[in-house]
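pinned: reference chain
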Amino acid sequence: MLKKLFLVSLLTVPMCAYATDITMHNNTKFSGTAYIGSSPCSSWLGDRGIAKPHQSLSVPTSLINTLCGSSNCTAYVYPNKNCSGKPAGKATLNAKNGVINITVEDDRFTASGGGFNVDLNEKNPTFKTWLKSWFE
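pinned: its structure tokens
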């Protein structure tokens, strides 16, 4: 019995280490939602699926594993509560490595980080206007 318990504990330790949530820090004034793989919009989960302005949202690795399987998949991120309009960006991710690549497609935003922590930020429009004035 003790050997079985020891074996079970050895097998579950790697699974616990593997189960890291992806945390998205929404440092913008916009709500955020996403499609991951072929999932419905994250807003179908209610408040748990909407990244509120200036708050963090954790996406369980188990959910990523369910939606993506053992391969990479794409998350399309929208700056609203219902995945409507044009996505602000996309991220390539998987359950083992978290976020592998981020592409921002809306010039109001920047994204940084990777792995299991991602920061979404708004660009400073005043700085952008000032910088643009130097190159026009």
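why pinned: The CA atoms of residues 26 and 115 lie 16 Å apart. Residues 1-17 have pLDDT under 50 and may be disordered.
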